[in-house]
């Protein structure tokens, strides 16, 4: 029994060393100095509507802890939903999300597609991993009301929810002028087909100088990542793809049943191994 305890202790050390960064080091997949200029969103809304109205968040909750926890998926009160339209900086991630949605949609085909929108990011767009890392750094240095305990809790959430893998970028509103184009996607014989022609938005305004915010100033952090939410967040929350249930004002909220396995809606994140979770919580 004592030997088993020593083995488990060694496993914790080894797994933590490989799974967690030292003092909030930036994950190799996220570099705050690399501008995010183009993001993607999967929608049911057809282009003729999106190019006129854009996409608008339905709720008022700016808490990114709530958004990444899966809570919006089971909260049906619109105003209590996120104040965010969710996107991803990874086009392949968006296509994978579309595939999973189409695989669970009967009758999917060229006449019942989803649309993959390419969107120009600007200073009103916010990188979710960037916000987490900004708050982690603030906690390590005891700034903006954050403490090392907040930093540790955020770091744990970052590596146990699909936050890094999703590469989420959020905005309260996506203006029509930011939407570059749309491509229809559908499932046929188990494969995702994409309309090679695509649909260009004639109202799109190109500006290569704009990019999403990667580093959040201290003054903006408490609204996005409230200290109380950080310390009260569920340890075993599975997380969710934000695009699954941001309930933006469109047909594409992709509202999911209450018993949905939210984590399965996203690709595998850079999460701690399940073995480590078993050891920690035993």
TrEMBL record:
Origin: domain of life: Bacteria
Record's signal peptide: 1-24
Protein keywords: Signal
GO MF annotation terms: NAD+ poly-ADP-ribosyltransferase activity
Gene Ontology CC, one term: extracellular region
Statement: the UniProt record of this protein carries the keyword Transmembrane: no
Residues spanning the membrane: none
InterPro entries reported for this sequence: Borpert_toxA
Identification of the protein by name: Uncharacterized protein
Source species of the chain: Noviluteimonas gilva
